Amino acid sequence: MNKKIFIIFPIIIFAFTIFFLNEANNELQEIYKNNESPQIFDRNNDLISITPNDKNFYAEYIKDIPEDFKKLIIEKEDKYFYIHKGVNPVSITMDLLSKIGLTLRNGSSTITQQLAKILLKNENNRTIKNKFKELFYSISLELMNSKENILLMYVNSIYFGNQIQGLETASYAYFNSNPNNLTKEEMLQLISSVNFPNQYNP
After folding, report:
1. What is the span of the domain harbouring residue 92?
2. pTM of structure
3. Residue 82 CB: number of other CB atoms within 10 A?
4. I need a surface site. Which of 58, 119, 124, 195 has the fewest CB within 10 A?
């Protein structure tokens, strides 16, 4: 009997963990879906108007990220994006050390953690509890989605100031241009505003 318990118990724990990770991912996917602004099209399927989402942002989702923008955003925000599994142990350690006063440098969040933070609406509530919650949700995103899908969700969720969310909306709002036609300088202007969208947007 003891041997059976020894074998079955880890399996049960594993099954429950996968279940809750899947539920966390489903929750984030639903939030992400609902964050896209409602759109109205005419009979020719041309966009007539776009209305704010629940955050009072305008968000028109892009389906494919321009390769140059993809490289630039990864280089600035998370150069180990394709290596880690949602969290960067070095960054977490730096963050913890800064909290107890052993270093002045904060650890930077991964793109996956930033996406979880945005979708959970924790941008302005940086408590330890929320950070641990974001870690769990980040792992769920990594396990249930491809890296490309996570990056696409992130690019569509970034806030660029002036009620503008996502690369597609920002490209037209600031430069009256399709994202694929942005110059490198224009892409860098957008990317530089990611951390301080209200101060440094184009």
Report:
1. 2-200
2. 0.86
3. 10
4. 124
